[in-house]
């Protein structure tokens, strides 16, 4: 490996501007040499801001002519599969945004191709690296919770109340709120508790959105409620919504876990800070658990959420920076496509459960390429 990893980025979105590009540019071994976006003016604006020498509007041209070794794919959901497969065919290391794909068949092909190519592959589940979720994981690993009995995961937002067209609500292009917020909560649930064994679910569309032609959109879910059972017997619920009016807090997250040895909970309001609380089984009062210095570091918990997130992803070995480290040091990276595939299996089962109105076990039946789930006998 040379002194630098030559990286191409597919996205000129606010998220690429806020997270991906600052994270990559802050890494001493990452050389962002190309950026691709459908709007050339916007791509050139971003290229100038981040001193990126090459600008493309065609990702296939960037892969063929950009001289890149690794690629970051932060395009809409429906483009993850073709872009990733093209990059893998070219032997590139790939970081792909969540959800990994539109269905299990695509995710399986992406994962198998990446493994066969021997490249580094990463699925970006950013919340694993936030201090309060990191601390929750540490407490669980130290036995604070013991065997989990039941859990609740909730993430509410309000950006889905806007009726204007966005690809996130277009059924042809996206998995909706289930893919956007739900994929993160599913990943955290399995990271904390274990593999999900079966699901029942209800997906809804509360706010009617408009299509590009001005007519009503064939829209995908903007709210989802999942009831889940884990392989270890724990029960849980996941509720995600993008149509909640939250006032001065534009996002709210809550994770509550009850176990044989204690209870743990995280509450986060993006406009009002976060708390980690817990109680052991022999304690009568739940109490705040300060995040230890080895996790919080010099992050000011009273600073704005976006400032904290920016510092974490531009100063620590997480996200895009962790992806570069894995390439340079030739080591495995997590979360990767295998983790993304695990989440995708749950998403497919959720969609099936909503359509059929029954519990769906996560057991594959028949041809792996047919994308069919076997319902509970």
Please tag this protein with its features.
377 residues, alpha/beta, six-stranded parallel sheet, 15 strands, globular, disordered C terminus
Q: Could you say which overall geometry the principal axes of the C-alpha atoms support?
A: globular
Name the poorly predicted regions. 364-377
Main beta sheet: 9 strands, mixed
Annotation field: number of helices: 11
The end-to-end span amounts to 53 Å
**Mean pLDDT over the residues:** 93
The SSE order reads EHEHEHEHEHEHEHEEEEEEEHHHHE
The residue fraction in helices comes out at 25-40%
* Category from helices, strands and their pairing: alpha/beta
Structural Rg: 21 Å
Strand order of the largest sheet: 14-13-12-11-7-10-9-8-15
Portion in beta strands: 15-25%
Count of distinct strands: 15
Summarize the topology.
Blueprint: E1 5-10, H1 14-25, E2 30-36, H2 40-49, E3 54-56, H3 59-65, E4 70-73, H4 80-89, E5 93-97, H5 104-117, E6 121-124, H6 131-141, E7 148-157, H7 176-192, E8 196-204, E9 223-230, E10 235-241, E11 251-259, E12 262-269, E13 273-280, E14 287-288, H8 293-296, H9 305-315, H10 319-329, H11 337-356, E15 360-361
Parallel strand pairs: 1-2, 1-4, 2-3, 4-5, 5-6, 7-10
Antiparallel strand pairs: 7-11, 8-9, 8-15, 9-10, 11-12, 12-13, 13-14
Describe the 3D structure.
With 377 residues, the protein is an alpha/beta fold. The protein contains eleven helices and 15 strands. A nine-stranded mixed β-sheet has the order 14-13-12-11-7-10-9-8-15. A six-stranded parallel β-sheet has the order 3-2-1-4-5-6, with helices on both faces. Strand 12 and strand 13 form a beta hairpin. Helix 4 runs parallel beside helix 5 and helix 7 packs across helix 11. The longest helix is centred in the C-terminal third of the chain and has 20 residues. The protein is globular, with a radius of gyration of 21 Å. The N and C termini lie far apart (53 Å). The relative contact order is 0.15. The C terminus is likely disordered.
């Amino acid at each position: 490996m040379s002194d630098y990893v030559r990286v191409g980025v597919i996205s000129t979105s606010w998220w690429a501007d806020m997270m991906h590009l600052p994270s990559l540019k802050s890494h001493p071994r990452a050389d962002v040499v190309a950026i691709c976006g459908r709007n050339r003016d916007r791509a050139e604006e971003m290229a100038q801001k981040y001193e990126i020498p090459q600008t493309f509007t065609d990702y296939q041209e960037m892969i063929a002519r950009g001289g890149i070794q690794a690629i970051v794919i932060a395009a809409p959901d429906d483009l993850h599969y073709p872009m990733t497969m093209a990059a893998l065919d070219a032997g590139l290391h790939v970081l792909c945004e969540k959800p990994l794909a539109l269905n299990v068949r695509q995710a399986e092909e992406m994962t198998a191709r990446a493994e066969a190519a021997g490249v580094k592959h990463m699925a970006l589940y950013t919340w694993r690296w936030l201090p309060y979720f990191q601390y929750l994981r540490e407490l669980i690993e130290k036995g604070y919770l013991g065997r989990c009995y039941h859990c609740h995961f909730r993430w509410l937002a309000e950006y889905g109340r806007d009726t204007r067209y966005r690809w996130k609500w277009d059924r042809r292009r996206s998995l909706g709120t289930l893919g956007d917020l739900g994929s993160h909560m599913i990943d955290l649930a399995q990271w904390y508790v274990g593999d999900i064994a079966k699901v029942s679910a209800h997906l809804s569309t509360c706010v009617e959105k408009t299509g590009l032609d001005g007519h009503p959109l064939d829209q995908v879910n903007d709210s989802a409620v999942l009831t889940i059972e884990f392989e270890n017997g724990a029960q849980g619920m996941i509720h995600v919504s993008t149509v909640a009016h939250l006032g001065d807090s534009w996002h709210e997250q809550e994770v509550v876990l009850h176990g044989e040895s204690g209870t743990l909970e995280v509450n986060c309001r993006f406009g009002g800070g976060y708390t980690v609380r817990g109680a052991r089984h022999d304690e009568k009062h739940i109490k705040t658990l300060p995040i230890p210095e080895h996790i919080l570091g010099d992050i000011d918990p009273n600073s704005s959420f976006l400032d904290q997130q920016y510092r974490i992803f531009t100063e620590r070995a997480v996200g895009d920076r962790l992806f570069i480290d894995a390439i340079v040091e030739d080591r495995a990276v997590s979360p990767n496509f295998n983790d993304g595939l695990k989440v995708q299996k749950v998403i497919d089962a959720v969609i099936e459960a909503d359509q059929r109105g029954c519990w769906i076990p996560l057991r594959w039946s028949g041809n792996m390429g047919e994308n069919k789930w076997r319902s509970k006998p």
